[in-house]
Amino acid sequence: MKSKYIYVIVCFNILTVICQNILHHPCSFLPRCRCRLEHHKNGVEVDCSHVQLKVIPSVPSYVIKLILKHNLIDDIPNGVFSNNTILTELDLSDNRIHTLTEMSFNGLQNLLKLNLQNNDLSKGNYSFGAKTFSHLKNLKYLNLKNNFAKHYQPDLSKLVSIESLHIDFISNGFHFLSKQYGNLHKLAILDLSGSTGKCFLPILTNDSFQYISHVQHLDISTCKIQQINQGALTMLKNITYLDVSNNTCLKFEGLENITSDLQFSNIKILKVNNLHKISDLTTVLKTSHIKDLHNTSLQYAFADGNRLQTIEKTAISYLPKSLKFVSLRGNPLKFGLYIFEVVLLVNLETADVSDLFRHQTDLHPEKCISDSIYTCKGDSVIAPRYMDPSDVTYLNAFDESNERDTPDFLSPATVPIPINLKHVNYSSGSLRMDVPKLKLSGNKLETIDFSNNILYALNGPIYNVKNVKVLNVSTNFCSNISKFFFSSDFKNLEHLNFHNNLLGIVLPDDNEGKILNNLESLIELVLSKNRIPNLPENVFKSQRNLQKLDLSENMFTDITFRVSHMTHLKELDLRGNRITIISDPFTSQFDSLATKHNFSVDLNKNLLECNCISIKFIEWMTTTNVRLKNIKKYKCMLWNRTNVALHSPKETYNLLRKHCASYENLELALVLGVLLFIILIMGSLMYRYRWKLRYLYYIVKVKYSSLHSETEEEYSYMYGAFVSYADEDRIFVHNTLLQKLEVENGIQLCLHKRNFLPGNDIATNITSAIHNSRRTLVIMSHNFLKSYWCMFEYNMARMESIYERRNENVVFLMFYEQMSPRDLPLNVLEMIQSKSYIEYPNDEYGDTVFWDQLVNALK
Ligand SMILES: *[C@@H]1O[C@H](CO)[C@@H](O)[C@H](O)[C@H]1NC(C)=O
Ligand SMILES: *[C@@H]1O[C@H](CO)[C@@H](O)[C@H](O)[C@H]1NC(C)=O
Ligand SMILES: *[C@@H]1O[C@H](CO)[C@@H](O)[C@H](O)[C@H]1NC(C)=O
Ligand SMILES: *[C@@H]1O[C@H](CO)[C@@H](O)[C@H](O)[C@H]1NC(C)=O
Ligand SMILES: *[C@@H]1O[C@H](CO)[C@@H](O)[C@H](O)[C@H]1NC(C)=O
Ligand SMILES: *[C@@H]1O[C@H](CO)[C@@H](O)[C@H](O)[C@H]1NC(C)=O
Ligand SMILES: *[C@@H]1O[C@H](CO)[C@@H](O)[C@H](O)[C@H]1NC(C)=O
Ligand SMILES: *[C@@H]1O[C@H](CO)[C@@H](O)[C@H](O)[C@H]1NC(C)=O
């Protein structure tokens, strides 16, 4: 009965947990903790981390996982877990627990994982022993790191199921793991690393690991190892993972002992990072250091931070063919002949040779026994062991190539690439060069990271990169890409990163979009921080598949390039530019993209303006389907130069509309005013030059109509003189003048009565007559001045002399009557002052002289 009752309560409690139905929520039994139902495990996980607990709370028996890390717990009361028989995971790390007793873990017979890292077990006189752990029959994972302050190897022999053990190891002269480990048959992972706990293992000998020969995964990084004797690791026949990193006194000589011990092992992953100190001289990896790996099936090798500068010739040929991954980060590698051997690594897929010139200082360098041996012999600096004087011969062989930082000996030839290499990281390599024409050997390269070098110019072309999908050339001071750098072999490139270069110098001139022409598969293009002021319309013409275009932190003031053809474009990043307004054709391009799918534009940190000019743009913001990313942060400058937030474009638009309505009226008034002003000016100008204008008009008309009749060459005047006279004076003209000039002197006269073509309008006839006569004879009289057409003729003749005949005397004035200057208009007076004129005498004598003069003037 009682058990049934408990069962109901348990079910009820589980139900309340379910009903609250939130993934992490306060536990009903412990409000400070978060509970989570694990459906497939049929239990509840309780997370009480970081809540300043001082004592271990008792939790219901249906809890399967209890996390108590980062609290102030200093004790595990006897039997506190005796109910928690189905608890599988207990995390007590980062507390102050100092004692473990025989009853501490009572009840936890199903516990799989126990974490006691970072506690104070050293305070409790190491009172725990075999009986403490005897309850944990099923424990697979135990972490006791950072607890011991001195040599102590607790009796773990009762942990018969243990697979993964993480523990401190401080040697007191006995540099071996105790015999009891021999009983932990399932132990596969042994982590003694000093980077997460305490480890002091100055010497490893052939008996150090004799009882853990079955371990597959051994971490002895940061263990202050000074010496690894040959044979120390030979016991570990089944080892697949070995981490000896961060033992800076070992040097590559220690590596030689390690690889020699591993030659018959199952090693797959070997980490030998930081076997040298940062302050060490540069090193050479010799054949002897690694030759014993040749027959292993090593796949992953890490040798970061070893001051490695070059690799002995043939050394690479001893690396196992199984090698898939090599990391040589933070080594000051120089190019050398070894480069040509990398093609031997036929299974290599990833090479990380980034960060070559890492500048760090080690504040607490390890004191090495070897250092004291080698630096105390007198004053001279003694070459360390790894630079044996006997090696000088081969070092010399490398010297030549070592002196160069750039592999220019490669440039005309084929660049050797391991045939299966997919990923290369040469980031931060201080490679300083203009990239020349290069052909890569057969390869499967997919990812190339050359960021953080100094590739001033990409000249190219680069061939044989047909599989490359990702290319990173960010931060390279690159200011020039040739139009053929991206050869058609780049047709599969999907991600191209040019962040932080100087392409603003070359891209704005690429009007035909030639530079990126071959990159048709591009999905993501980063051109941020390139000082680009603008881009030509067609610069991205081939990028139809682009999904993400990052143009942030440039100097754009407007969008001028086409994006409407990028039908997959999802993100356009224009953050941190100088855009004040995006004009209409481009906003509609954006709209057309947004109709197809989710398209966003980021305009944060620009110089947006909210005034009557940009009102259409602001209106667009209120109506568009384009997602304006970060719009909450947009600011824009109002007409009165104040900055306002633009988080609600609608409000701003309404504000603008009100403001601009009055502005529009003002604008209209202004426009009308200006128009009126222009009309006035034009009017007065036209009045001032009325004669010139009329003259030009008619002369054009005349010339046009006479175009077909005569050519300029044989043009001679049709009339000797055109006589301009008032109708009242016609008797004189028709009788006397005609007789004297035409009949007696043969001067062909043009008289409107006689010579004007009927049908043509008068003005055209007049202009034509003036134009076709050598002179225009004006019979000046009071009647002449009164006649509209006479004055028209006079003015036209004046214009003809000024504009058509270069001030030649065309007009000849004859005063038929006595006229006082007061009667004459200004333009006639002007003529009298500057040109000759003649008065009609009205007496016999004068008559003869008069006619002679007149005939002379007209001939
Ligand atoms: C390497 O060892 C030093 C001290 O010897 C330590 O401070 C550092 O954290 C270790 N680095 C790693 C990656 O374990
Ligand atoms: C360790 O090597 C010594 C000799 O160098 C040898 O006598 C001893 O038996 C070896 N121990 C083991 C466990 O192989
Ligand atoms: C190594 O592993 C194999 C099978 O994986 C096993 O038969 C052998 O006993 C193991 N050797 C040691 C020393 O544990
Ligand atoms: C390598 O092993 C030999 C022989 O056991 C030993 O004398 C030498 O000190 C070891 N070297 C290092 C660097 O541990
Ligand atoms: C690798 O094994 C072959 C035979 O299996 C042997 O001839 C060769 O010497 C070994 N190489 C090394 C470096 O141990
Ligand atoms: C290359 O290495 C650098 C640092 O050394 C790292 O930041 C970068 O992510 C790596 N690149 C790739 C593609 O893994
Ligand atoms: C870029 O390089 C080409 C030759 O590859 C050269 O003709 C051009 O002048 C360079 N442009 C700039 C801006 O340096
Ligand atoms: C559009 O994409 C963004 C992420 O880029 C996402 O947060 C948003 O929910 C998407 N909207 C729609 C309607 O798919």
UniProtKB/TrEMBL annotation:
GO biological process terms on file: immune response; toll-like receptor signaling pathway
Domain of life: Eukaryota
Domain TIR residue range list: 717-858
Topology class, membrane: Single-pass type I membrane protein
Transmembrane domains' residue ranges: 5-23, 668-687
Gene Ontology molecular function: any one: transmembrane signaling receptor activity
Gene3D superfamilies xref list: Ribonuclease Inhibitor, Toll/interleukin-1 receptor homology (TIR) domain
SUPFAM superfamilies noted in UniProt: L domain-like, Toll/Interleukin receptor TIR domain
Entry-linked Pfam families: LRR_5, LRR_8, TIR
SMART domains, per the entry: LRR_SD22, LRR_TYP, TIR
InterPro entries the UniProt entry points to: Leu-rich_rpt (IPR001611), Leu-rich_rpt_typical-subtyp (IPR003591), LRR_5 (IPR026906), LRR_dom_sf (IPR032675), TIR_dom (IPR000157), Toll-like_receptor (IPR017241), Toll_tir_struct_dom_sf (IPR035897)
GO cellular component: plasma membrane
Location within or outside the cell: Membrane
UniProt entry tagged with the keyword Repeat: yes
Family: Belongs to the Toll-like receptor family.
Protein name, UniProt field: Toll-like receptor h
Record lineage: Eukaryota, Metazoa, Spiralia, Lophotrochozoa, Mollusca
